[in-house]
């Protein structure tokens, strides 16, 4: 019974991770980013590490929406104006928790 309860809890905790990774895929973020390795852009885990303990969610949400350049190298991140603000917030929250 305990093992079943722990397995169910693990599934519930993993569900938001899969859901937000699915949102990243749907929003075309995974064309340039990967969770755990550098691609065109930085790995999401590297972003989480860089900003750990900092209150930067609003700043990163604005960067996702408007685009940016220079923090992670010379390749610019294009604006993502078509992605809903609520989805950008979910994505940034997910990335910062990795």
Any overview of this molecule?
By secondary structure, the chain is mostly helical. The chain is built from four helices and no strands. It has helices spanning 2-26, 44-50, 57-66, 85-96. Helix 1 (2-26) packs across helix 4 (85-96). It starts with a helix and ends with a helix. The mean pLDDT is 88.
- Overall strand count: 0
Low-confidence residue ranges: none
Helix content: 55-70%
- Could you spell the SSE succession in H and E letters? HHHH
Global outline: globular
Radius of gyration: 15 Å
- Helix/strand structural class: mainly alpha
Termini gap: 30 Å
Number of helices: 4
For the sheet with most strands, the description reads: none
Which features would summarize this protein structure in a list?
98 residues; mainly alpha; 4 helices; 55% helix; 0% strand
Give a brief description.
55% of the residues lie in helices and 0% in strands. The chain contains four helices and no strands.
Outline the secondary-structure elements:
Blueprint: H1 2-26, H2 44-50, H3 57-66, H4 85-96
